[in-house]
Design a protein that fits this description.
Strands 2-3-4-6-5 form a five-stranded mixed beta barrel. Strands 9-10-11-13-12 form a five-stranded mixed beta barrel. Strands 24-25-26-28-27 form a five-stranded mixed β-barrel. It has six domains: 122 residues, OB fold (Dihydrolipoamide Acetyltransferase, E2P) (Beta Barrel), CATH 2.40.50.140; 96 residues, Nucleic acid-binding proteins (OB fold (Dihydrolipoamide Acetyltransferase, E2P), Beta Barrel); 84 residues, Immunoglobulin-like (Sandwich); 98 residues, Nucleic acid-binding proteins (OB fold (Dihydrolipoamide Acetyltransferase, E2P)), CATH 2.40.50.140; 95 residues, Nucleic acid-binding proteins (OB fold (Dihydrolipoamide Acetyltransferase, E2P)), CATH 2.40.50; 83 residues, Immunoglobulin-like, CATH 2.60.40. The chain contains five helices and 42 strands. It starts with a helix and ends with a strand. With 608 residues, it is mainly β.
């Protein structure tokens, strides 16, 4: 009889019209084939449930819905593509969701292509996690439970009690726990740093991830620590260390004699946080930014009298973004120049050059100066800290490499110091932003740059297009956030963030400026322009004028600031050689030759 029921369900699912079928999450998840794939794939369905996890737990466009009774087959992932717009949710919110059942890397999900098909039914109490033992999700494949015991909890909020950490973080943020019945991976991006033999209860959503069923906690609150110790430490600003303990502390945590820090720094005073008794602030006077320190506890106890003998490593003060970006792995042949700081939790400060509102995904950019290697991408799907453009900020997070780009993720803390700051774009050639430029292009990763009078050489098919100023083509993307329609031959000034080498992300319409087209450029009196450097502080160039014209020279440094200007007067048609004693410091410069409204720009390195 059970087999007949499954067959009937499959026939119904394959004869759907545009009318959604009213069903429930349990039916969708429990009716599956021998591989765990739902028999309802490609079906348009309507289900009801309560939000058990918000965005950012497994993806920036995913949240989780669960039936009130919980248990096996009661949860499912809801995916909203960027084209469908945004739909904010909160834990405990009751929703009716209409979407198409899909399978994505082993996870059954509802894809909602129109957010008007999600109806808010009210707010109820949050979902209570279903308590399970590790053998239900065992990673060793030795469990004696039925084959679908793990699949039954995919998308469900679960809790494992009395677990011990048996393996610490790997390169992908996974660590392992066991309660004596089996072993399970936990994958999280929060402040807790797992240590071998830590004892805790773990709550989280079950997700299939790289072929394994893992627990994905929603926040630090999903960890209940059963043994005393230090969870983590980090620099809250240039001279303050925040120490997060696993259990509540009392006033004895304010005694400087109970802490040892090496290399030695002066502790001015210590205070217990007024609202969070697991948080202690250590105020110092001589902490050095980017330096690795080790903190030891010395005779410390928690509020219950448990002795805390623990050690934690942290990086002091503000770690310069330039250090993170330029300290690369020696001998790496990938061409991506990965940073040696990968996996380290650090504190940075800088100005926000592009906030989350400029992009389809939850990342933003922080920059420390108007120079190469001074910017970094911050990935924050959990919404820990969302500053505005021009904010001067302090952010604590983990450094990683993603698709060849250095970024900060797993944010611990963020705060705005002040507002209204401006970072000017660095004037570059398009060729400087391509893989062929090597380490030069790496320097502009995460940095606000501008290219001048670049031609659209490939208008693309809707998602991006290519521009080239004659030095090499770079892809312009993020088209959803500006209205310009690319046309081959258009000449543009483009400002944006180099998110990845070869991919330039303008932020808005103001960043894409039409300045003409190639037909108009053909009318320019400027012909061939040859730039070279000679002698001490001298710049020489050759220029060919097709017709007589008044010519001016402007020189800009890498920050886009004009450092030299001179009018050459009206020159006749033909070839001209110009030598300038510009009296500039050693460095990279851009020489802009203008004749009326027409420009030609070259790049040079000035040597002493």
């Amino acid at each position: 009889m059970k087999k007949l029921y499954v067959v009937v369900a499959l026939l119904v699912a394959t004869t759907l019209s545009a009318q959604a079928i009213n069903t429930d999450i349990y039916t969708i998840q429990s009716q599956m084939d021998s591989t765990g794939t739902s028999l309802w794939v490609d079906s348009l369905v309507t289900v009801e449930g309560v939000v058990s996890a918000g965005y950012g737990v497994t993806g920036s466009r995913n949240f989780f819905l669960e039936m009130r009774q919980g248990g096996p087959y009661s949860g499912i992932m809801v995916y909203i593509p960027t084209t469908a717009g945004d739909f904010p949710v909160q834990l405990g919110e009751s929703l009716s969701v209409t979407g198409t059942v899909t399978e994505f890397y082993g996870n059954t999900e509802l894809q909602v292509n129109d957010t008007t098909q999600i109806i808010r039914l009210g707010v109820v109490s949050p979902i209570t996690p279903t308590e399970i033992t590790c053998d239900y999700l065992d990673t060793t494949l030795t469990t004696t439970l039925p084959w679908d015991s793990a699949e039954a909890y995919e998308g469900v909020l679960v809790k494992v009690n009395n677990a011990v950490v048996t393996d610490t973080l790997d390169a992908n943020g996974n660590w392992q726990i066991s309660d004596g019945t089996g072993y399970v991976y936990v994958n999280n991006n929060y402040s807790y740093t797992p240590n071998l033999y830590d004892q805790l209860n773990v709550t989280g959503i079950v997700q299939t991830h790289y072929g394994l069923y893992k627990i994905r906690p929603r926040s630090d609150a999903d960890f209940e620590f059963l043994n005393a110790g230090i969870s983590m430490a980090y620099a809250a600003d240039a001279q303050v260390i925040d120490v997060v303990f696993k259990t509540k502390m009392d006033q004895n945590a304010e005694d400087p004699a109970k802490y040892v820090i090496t290399p030695s720094i002066t502790i001015d005073h210590i205070s217990l946080d007024a609202s969070d008794s697991t948080l202690v602030h250590i105020y110092t006077t001589d902490m050095v930014g980017g330096t690795e320190y080790t903190l030891y506890t010395n005779g410390l106890t928690d509020i219950s009298g448990n002795a805390i003998t623990d050690t934690v490593v942290f990086y002091g003060g503000f770690t310069p973004i330039t250090l993170i970006q330029t300290d690369t792995v020696a001998g790496d042949t990938s061409g991506y120049y990965p940073t040696n700081w990968q996996g380290r939790t650090v504190t940075i400060t800088g100005v926000v050059t592009a906030n989350k509102d400029h992009f389809d995904y939850p990342f933003y950019f922080v920059q420390q100066s108007e120079a190469p290697f001074s910017g970094i991408q911050v990935w924050d799907p959990a919404g820990v800290f969302s500053p505005a453009d021009g904010d001067s900020v302090i952010i604590v997070g983990q450094i990683t490499e993603f698709n060849g780009a250095t970024e900060m993720l797993n944010l611990v803390y963020g705060t705005t110091i002040s507002q209204g700051h401006t970072i000017n774009p660095i004037l570059v050639n398009t060729g400087d932003l391509t893989p062929g430029a090597g380490f030069m292009a790496e320097g502009y990763e995460g940095v606000l740059v501008m290219v001048d009078t670049a031609q659209v050489t490939d208008p693309g098919t809707g998602s991006d297009f290519v521009i080239d100023d004659g030095t090499g083509g770079v892809t312009v993307t993020n088209l959803n956030h500006f209205s310009y329609t690319p046309t081959a031959g258009d000449l543009l000034n483009v400002t944006g963030i180099l998110r990845y080498v070869g991919q330039l992300y303008p932020r808005s319409d103001a960043d894409v400026v039409y300045v003409g087209d190639v037909a108009e450029k053909a009318q320019s009196p400027l012909g061939k322009f040859t730039l070279r450097t000679i002698g001490r502080n001298k710049i020489a160039f050759g220029i060919t004028l097709k017709t007589p014209a008044s010519v001016s020279v402007n020189i800009y440094n890498v920050t886009g600031s004009r450092v030299y200007s001179r009018s050459l007067g009206r020159l006749s048609s033909g070839n001209h050689v110009v030598s300038l004693n510009a009296r500039l410091a050693r460095g990279v410069y851009f020489v802009d030759i203008s004749a009326g409204k027409y420009h030609s720009i070259g790049r040079t390195v000035l040597v002493k």
